Amino acid sequence: MEGDSDRGEVKENEVKEGVASIALLPCGSISGHFIQLPHNICYGLHGTELECERECSRGEDYRLIKLTIIDYKRKKERDAFVECRGHDAARLSSIDHAHGWEKNVVGMVEEKHGKNKIVVSFNCETLKAEKAAEDHIRNFMPKLAGLDAVVNIGRMSITGLDFEDEELESKQNLPEL
């Protein structure tokens, strides 16, 4: 891949694949969870839409999202920047691989929010709306009940997500006693 030396190398064994359940809220935010299969490890997902400071002519169908991936067990989180396409049936992809965003917009996000080493891909396979969405939310995301969200369920892959790297780095940087 072009430019990988700038962003850091991503090892093949760092690919996490599984199923995600994501609530798309009317305000533009997203919330949900990702279950890594076959290990059944669950991560929280929370996304907020980024305002584009430059003229973006892609319309409402294309949005930039700051996606926070949360490991509740380790009490750690990592941010990734993704493009969200589609309205009710969302598709998420990392901005490094997104089509249509100008390089200066990608550069602006990297400058403001740091280098993106996490690559995310999600495609909605099941869409739940109205009563089906509300039932799903009450069962799996009760804090979001009553917010008129739609639910997307589908396969997700995350590459470059490593919560243990930070733990090793912080241990290596500790002064010796």
Please give the structural blueprint.
Layout: H1 4-7, E1 16-24, E2 30-36, E3 41-49, E4 62-71, E5 76-85, E6 91-94, H2 103-113, E7 119-128, H3 130-140, E8 150-159, H4 163-172
Antiparallel strand pairs: 1-2, 1-8, 2-3, 3-4, 4-5, 5-6, 6-7, 7-8
Task: Please give a structural write-up.
There is one protein chain. With 177 residues, the chain is of the alpha+beta class. The protein has one domain (15-159). The chain has four helices and eight strands, in the order H-E-E-E-E-E-E-H-E-H-E-H. The longest helix is centred in the middle third of the chain and has 11 residues, at 103-113. The protein starts with a helix and ends in a 5-residue tail after the last helix. The model is unreliable at 1-12 and 167-177 (pLDDT under 50).
Helix fraction by DSSP (H/I, runs of at least 4): 10-25%
Strand count, sense and barrel status of the largest sheet are: 8 strands, antiparallel, barrel
The oligomerization state is single chain
Strands of the biggest beta sheet: in what spatial order? Answer: 1-2-3-4-5-6-7-8
The number of distinct helices, counting runs of at least 4 residues, comes to 4
Distance between the termini: 43 Å
Look at the helices and sheets and give the structural class. Answer: alpha+beta
> Mean of the pLDDT scores?
77
Order of helices and strands: HEEEEEEHEHEH
Shape: globular
Q: Number of folding domains? A: 1
- Tally the beta strands: 8
Radius of gyration, in angstroms, nearest whole number: 17 Å
Provide the low-confidence segments as ranges: 1-12, 167-177
Beta percentage is: 35-45%
